[in-house]
Amino acid sequence: MSDVDAAITRAHRDEWARVVATLTRRFGDLDVAEDAAAEAFATAVERWPTDGVPPNPGAWLTTTATRKAIDRIRRESRRDDKHREAVMLHDDSAPEPLGAIDDDRLRLIFVCCHPALAAQTRVALTLRMVGGLTVPEIARAFLVRETAMEQRITRAKAKIKAAGIPYRMPSVEDLPARVSGVLAVLYLVFNEGYLATGPDSEPVRTDLTAEAIRLTRLLRMLLPHDGEVAGLLALMLMTEARRAARLSATGELVTLDEQDRGSWDAELIGEGHRLVRERLATGEPPGRYQLLAAINAVHTSARDIRDTDWSQIVALYDQLVRIDPSPIVELNRAIAAAELDGPEVALAAVDRLEPRLSGYRGFHVARADLLRRLGRSAESRAGYDSAIELSGNSAETAHLIRRRDQLG
Amino acid sequence: MQYLISVIDDHSNPGSLDRGPHIEEFNKRLIAEGHWVFAGGLADTDAATVIDNRGEEPIVTDGPFVESKEYLAGVWVWEAPDLDVALRLATEASKVCDRKIEVRPFQ
User: Fold this and answer.
1) C or N terminus of chain A, fewer CB within 10 Å?
2) CB distance from B102 to chain A under 8 Å?
3) A156 and A218: one domain?
4) CA of B43 vs chain A CAs: smallest distance (Å)
5) A44 domain-assigned
6) In which domain, by residue range, is B40 found?
7) From A111, which residue of chain B is nearest by alpha-carbon distance?
8) How many domains in chain A?
9) What digits encode the pLDDT tens for the residues A24-34?
10) Does the beta-carbon distance from A116 to B86 stay under 8 Å?
11) SS3 helix, strand, coil % of chain B, rounded to 5?
12) A347 in the same domain as A387
């Protein structure tokens, strides 16, 4: 890659969201902002190789995009001189005191993750407007046709405009719920990358995990005192740290107990641990992501699976069950509790979840594993069969087939 | 912006019938805070009549334009600066009316 190409890639990564956000504030229209930003980057690709990379790429891109936006508004409002004049005269881009919380990008994130938009739409819009992924890239990520994804994004932009979804920070009383909505979107992107759900997609999508981490880092920078933001970032970092150990050379999923802990990324784990300690030091009651991060911190502190502090993990799950009493949390608690109370007790707890989780792959995997440990091979085999039948991550399927075929 | 706020009831699972005083109280607040434009409760859908005069002859049909379990029980028109404000009020309205609420912007 030439220096100019590298500069363009870097500018895209660092400046895309800022350009879209600044233009959205100035023109009050996401569609105008998105198109103008895309045009500005296209112009950079054309011009920078001959003109050289400008000293301040971000400012150059924002200025170029602003011109493109004004051109478009001029074209569209040619028949409406009054409107045109209004646009030309109205310049609210005058310097204003920008605390971290006033960052335009944060407002942009809140718009994209607005609760009045469907969950899938929030994900797509965030990846497009904040992440700068192209529509074909997002369509590929979620195995949706490009035209369908284009429509989804277009409809979302139209709704934002028509319904009056505001481009501003949520009110203080709405903020916690809105932040948790944003975190849900980022976690979903991360999980789709970490354990891709489709049987036909790559088992691990590093493009998506990396993007989720990048956006969560951005959110952490914008909301440095939010415990759950820190918790989610820590959780992602400690999960990402185990990526290389999670897939065998033959593309099979390697479970936590069989992973080569030496190949975990110590730097990412260190950063995750620091975040967890920072949150513990505040003494504030932890939320869901902070508890999940703490559980991961315990796992990643053990050099060997046998050194794992299971009582600590179960205690953290108990706390998690209290704030998030979902069957999946209870399932994970039971899996951890098996290490303390033995597989028999755990199996009874898992079986109680059957009515609510019979369509969930993880339930059948947990059951089959516990039955295997209890020497109940035939039942275990049936459990693995049920899990394999529910389509899911391809590397996990390979792992489950091996486990099943190892049964005597 | 103005929003049409639809109060949605359900024949098979109707909301409670004692909401009148609460709604009156809520309306006073809407007026005091400058959100109130219009409000009205509707008679049952049995009382609706549909007219279609797009063809040769007007056709009159007894009953609502769409038969469904859920139906419109009443409406408000609110003035609100943006959807976040409208949604916050609608969240309260749903409790006040003990019914689902649809928020839809005017063009």
Assistant:
1) C
2) no
3) no
4) 28
5) yes
6) 2-105
7) B84
8) 4
9) 999 989 999 99
10) no
11) 30, 35, 35
12) yes
Q: Domain count for chain B, please give it.
A: 1
The alpha carbon dihedral of A279, A283, A289, A291 has a sign of positive
Whether the CB of B14 is below 8 Å from some CB of chain A: the reply is: no
8 Å CB contact of B87 and A115: yes
State which residue of chain A sits closest to B104, comparing Cα positions.
A163
Structural domain that includes position A345: 319-408
Please report, for residues A216, A294, A299, A322, A336, the alpha-carbon distance to residue A309 in angstroms, rounded to integers and kept in the order given: 28, 12, 8, 21, 10
Q: Tell me how many helices (H) and strands (E) chain B has.
A: 2, 6
Q: Which contacts (CB < 8 Å, 24+ apart) does range A68-73 have?
A: A68/A35, A68/A36, A68/A39, A68/A40, A68/A43, A69/A23, A69/A26, A69/A27, A69/A32, A69/A33, A69/A35, A69/A36, A72/A32, A72/A35, A72/A36, A73/A27, A73/A32
Render pLDDT for A311-358 as a digit per residue (tens, 0 to 9): 999 999 999 999 999 999 999 999 999 999 999 999 999 999 999 999
Judged by CB atoms closer than 8 Å, whether chains meet at B88 and A116 is answered as: no
Place of tokens 């975040």: A275
What digits encode the pLDDT tens for the residues B18-72? 899 999 999 999 999 999 999 999 999 999 999 999 999 999 999 898 888 999 9
Give the list of residues 6+ apart from residue B27 with CB closer than 8 angstroms, or none: B36, B39
Query: How many residues does this entry show for chain A?
Result: 408
Is A70 found in the same domain as A34? yes
